[in-house]
Design goal:
Helices cover 36% and strands 27% of the residues. The chain has 286 residues and is an alpha+beta fold. The protein folds into 2 domains: 126 residues; 133 residues, Gcn5-related N-acetyltransferase (GNAT) (Aminopeptidase), CATH 3.40.630.30. The mean pLDDT is 93.
Length: 286
């Protein structure tokens, strides 16, 4: 079956929303981005017009979906390798140039291989990630000293500096959005600082819940303050804030190369859901 494509988020959610919401944790990125576009318009991510699409089998059942918000990679739901390869062909036919693909390992590889066949552009590895969903929230044991507070506009300079540092350290998977993140999340309490002796020592962020799921991230502790449990405490605090605001579930992504964070989040009650990979197209550094 051919891909159904649209630039209208309402049309997309009317057609594919039920499919995406049936697996809200695994589709957190698509659902969150679509919700932001519906709330703030097509320019929510600052690039050219977003593109949405879905595969509909005979009988009307949707079996795959994607979202592309330039300048970020195209994000794929779970789908067959054939659907992923066909989508790469659709992008090439439209001369639409994705920065990369963000998906499960198999559909990401299938999209990248087809993209190379159509365009000659080879893929290079980006970040390998693991998606976790909260089971039962557990506090750090032993708990670190200090307490959490919700960040405010008065913290903007610190928040921007720490988010910039996180972006540089993590290795950019897209443009730096520190300004937008701070401006958006301060408004609904989506940034928490862990303080020790009145001094901020760690930062944790969350987005607005979409389809009942809130997503945590980023979490950042300056290098000289690591190893003391501050990041774990900030994560527990921001997770509890999401639950208190009515989130039905809480998810987060980790870098699979960072064994410490993968171990930490499991100690806090998060459980693995699925692995994801980003494959980049174009020249290195793009």
């Amino acid at each position: 079956m051919a891909w159904e494509l649209t630039e209208d988020v309402a049309t997309y959610l009317a057609a594919a929303g039920g499919f995406l919401r049936a697996r809200p944790a695994e589709n957190t990125v698509i659902l969150t981005a679509a919700a932001a576009i519906r709330a703030r318009g097509a320019g929510a991510f600052g690039g050219s017009a977003p593109l949405f699409g879905w595969q509909e089998e005979r009988g009307g059942a949707v079996t795959a979906a994607f979202l592309h918000t330039p300048p970020f990679p195209v994000v794929l739901s779970a789908m067959s390798d054939g659907h992923a390869a066909a989508l790469a062909g659709e992008f090439a036919a439209r001369d639409r140039q994705p920065a990369g693909v963000n998906a499960g390992p198999a559909p990401a590889a299938a999209f990248a291989a087809a993209w190379h066949d159509h365009t000659g552009q080879a893929a290079r590895p980006g970040m390998r990630m693991r998606l976790y969903a909260l089971g039962r929230l557990l506090s750090p044991d032993p708990p670190p000293p200090g307490e959490a507070r919700t960040a405010s506009a008065e913290d903007a300079a610190l928040l921007l500096a720490w988010l910039d540092a996180f972006h540089d350290e993590a290795g950019p998977q897209g443009p730096n959005e520190s300004d937008r993140l701070v401006n958006d999340r301060i408004g609904f309490g989506g940034l928490i600082l862990w303080e020790h002796h009145g001094r901020p020592v760690s930062l944790a962020a969350r987005n607005r819940a979409a389809a009942g799921q809130a997503r945590i991230g980023p979490v950042y502790t300056p290098p000289d303050l690591r190893g003391r449990g501050f990041g774990g405490a900030a994560t527990v605090a921001i997770t509890q804030a999401a639950l208190d605001d009515g989130a039905e579930g809480v998810v987060l992504f980790t870098d699979l190369a960072n064994q410490a964070s993968n171990t930490l989040y499991q100690r806090l009650g998060y459980r693995p859901v699925s692995d994801w990979t980003v494959l980049r197209f174009g020249a290195a550094g793009s």
